[in-house]
Amino acid sequence: MNSTRIVTAFLTHGNKYLILKRSEKVKSMRNLWAGISGIIEGEEEPIYRAKREILEEAGITEDKITLLKTGKQMQVESQYENHEWLIHPFLFAVSDPKITLNWENREYAWINVSDLSKYQTVPSLDRVLASLL
Fold first, then answer.
1. Superfamily (CATH) of domain 2-130
2. pTM of the model
């Protein structure tokens, strides 16, 4: 089985959690809601990738976030044959909730955890978020 290591970071502000709607321009999971995610490259540390993705996808610099929790790596079944995602979950508090999206996402929402089921999400997003709460 092939595995791809990815990070999924959630930002929280005032009891709300940020989710992003993936754009038509990304390779996979188009138009689905997700956390801030990215593939871990080489021997890169997951926390480094998480902070980099937060800057790239949400426009938030490292000085505006505080790590609240690191979840245990999770296996999630992939849409591809003989493949799995190995997700490294992170939860960060953000001091300024102003979001500047890049091309990877086309919309964002600050939601209550109880509202996540109302969104069409990437597989197991609810499980990933629950592991951080």
1. Nucleoside Triphosphate Pyrophosphohydrolase (3.90.79.10)
2. 0.90
